[in-house]
Structures are given as C-alpha cells and as structure tokens.
Design a protein that fits this description.
heterodimer; A: mainly beta; four-stranded antiparallel β-sheet; 11 strands; 47% strand; B: mainly beta
Chain lengths: 114, 113
C-alpha cells in the first residue's frame, strides 16, 4: 500500500497559481497518481491522473519527477470556487486485476481568498 | 453518458435499527462499484468494492455489509446501527480498465442517534 503525505492546508488569493505537493515514497511500478477535488457535502471529483513526467488538462497540471516519489498538482489562476479539499492518491492494484482500490487520506484544504 | 444515483440523501436512525442504502449506475455495463464512508472532518474510508454481481470484497471489518444483486446496483446494509456508523456515505463506480478514475454519487448523510 502506497501511502501519501500532503499538507493539511494551504491558503492562496484569487488569480494566483497554486501548487500542492504530495509525497509517495513507496509508489509501486504499476501505480498511477490521481488527484481529486471535494467540496463540502459532495462526493470527490476526479481532476487529473498521471504516471510520469507532466500531464495537463483544462483544469490542472500534474508534474511527476523521474523517481515518481512525489507529485505536484498545479492549479493556474485560482478563483474562490477552487476552495475545496484536494486529495492525492496512489492506486493499489491487485496484480492481474482490473480493480483500482483508492485510499484517501485527509487531503489538503485549499482556501482561496479574494 | 453515465450517471450515479444514491438514496436517501439524508437519514436519521436510532442505534440498533437496520440500514439500507442504495446506489445505482446508469449508462455503463459491468462497472467496478465502491462504498466509502467519510466521518466529519476526515478523509474517505473505503468500505467495500465489487467487480461483478455477487462479488463483494470488504476492506474494513465492521457491522456493515454490502451486496450487488444486479450489475449496476450496489446496496450497503446493517442489521444494527452503532453510533460510530454516523457519517457521509458515498458510492462510486469506475470503468474496468485498471486505472483509478472513479465517479462518485451525491452521497447519503447518515446520523445515528
């Protein structure tokens, strides 16, 4: 089981870029790194997923160094509506299985101020 | 497109009473299905997952159980609720492709009194 460590909270202001770093020293060869966003009283929402190097979509970028022991979620120009909890997860898949079991920690509470 | 439904949205039950939460998925076949619980101010805890009808795996020993009577239906049950069962219960599904993109339902807020 690959555990993850991320800051408990972060603060930012509207329009700034936010980088949330997650460490996962015991990541396995077949594991993907996935980030989710959760608003209060809602289920988490998938943001981005990667295996190595850099992945970018319309919402965020994910930077993964060569050793894959950490990853950084980058949110460009955040707004008040980006205030949420962000979870970094590393998949723990059974060998030969198509099931991806995810383990959510406490995540990072991002608060964006006006 | 795929959608996931959960009901009820909120539930208040006395200690010792039974529980049945239902989750259904539309627009996809043979999904992986998951039940999570989130206690107040905490992260999500994976409770059960299923790769097919009648195939249930439990992550945490507890007084809860899960069943999958149909391909896209996932039920969380308890014969006797405990105070510690209070929380936000979330159902999720994923494609059977080995990656970890999961889609969550709206959740059920359970309060055991």
């Amino acid at each position: 089981l690959a555990k993850t460590t991320q800051p408990i909270s972060m603060d930012s202001y509207e329009g700034q870029e936010v980088n949330i770093t997650c460490s996962h020293n015991n990541i396995a060869t077949n594991d993907y790194i996935t980030w989710y966003q959760q608003f209060p009283s809602q289920g988490p929402r998938f943001i981005i997923q990667g295996y190595k190097t850099k992945v970018t979509n319309e919402v965020a970028s994910l930077f993964i160094p060569a050793d894959r022991k950490s990853s950084t979620l980058s949110l460009p120009r955040v707004s008040l509506s980006d205030t949420a909890v962000y979870y970094c997860l590393v998949g723990d898949s059974d060998r030969g299985s198509t099931l991806g079991r995810l383990y959510f920690g406490r995540g990072t509470q991002l608060t964006v101020w006006p | 497109s795929q959608t996931i439904h959960q009901w009820p949205a909120t539930l208040v039950q006395p200690v010792g009473s039974p529980l049945s939460l239902e989750c259904t998925v539309e627009g996809t076949s043979n999904p992986n299905l998951y039940w999570y619980r989130q206690a107040a101010g905490r992260g999500l805890q994976l409770l059960f997952y299923s790769v097919g009808i009648g195939q249930i795996s439990s992550e945490v020993p507890q007084n809860l159980s899960a069943s999958r009577p149909q391909d896209r239906q996932f039920i969380l049950s308890s014969k006797k609720l405990l105070l510690s069962d209070s929380g936000f219960y979330l159902c999720a599904w994923s494609f059977v492709d080995g990656t970890y993109e999961q889609y969550f339902g709206p959740g059920t807020r359970l309060t055991v009194t």
